[in-house]
Every structure is written in C-alpha cells, then in structure tokens.
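Subject: Protein record for review, amino acid sequence with backbone structure tokens
How to read it: Take the token row as a discrete description of the fold.
Enclosed: The protein record, placed directly beneath this head.
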Amino acid sequence: MEASGAASMGMMIIWMVIIFGIMYFLMIRPQKKEQKRLQAMLNSMEVGDSVVTTSGFYGVVIDMTEEDVIVEFGNNKNCRIPMRKQAIAEVEKAEQATA
C-alpha cells in the first residue's frame, strides 16, 4: 500500500512541474520579452522622435531627463506636457518620419 502512495505522490509532483513549465512558457516568458522590448524602445528614444502615449495622444519629444520626457502636442507649439517615459506606448524615429 505504501508503494502506491509514494508512486501517486511522485506523479503529482511530476504533474505540478509540467503545469508550472506550461505556465512559464505561455504566460511569464512572453511578458518578460515584451518588457525587454518596451525598455529597449524607451532607451533608444531621442529628442525629435514622434511618440504615441498610452492614452493615445500623438506628439514630439522636445526634452528628456532620466525618467521624464517633455512632449509637444498639436501644431500650435504651445501644448508641452511633461510625462514619465513609461507613458510612451510607441516611438517613431525622427529620420523615419521625414523619409
């Protein structure tokens, strides 16, 4: 009787490891890849790049610090808003926008 109890405990541990492996490859790994891609995009951002914020506003980066950017919105050049870099969803490089 003890042998079957040990075997079922071993199978349960094997199934838990398999389920954790599936969860890692389906959930955790893609999220980490996306975080690395987003961080690389924010690190490559420069003054003059066109950006889209997480709230959907289009603008141009006019100044940057380590954690913040100042984005100019609209054509009248009077709407300049400081925001965190994490509020940027997409970046289009300045040389791509003019080409």
About this structure: Residues 1-43 form one domain. The chain has two domains: 1-43, 46-98.
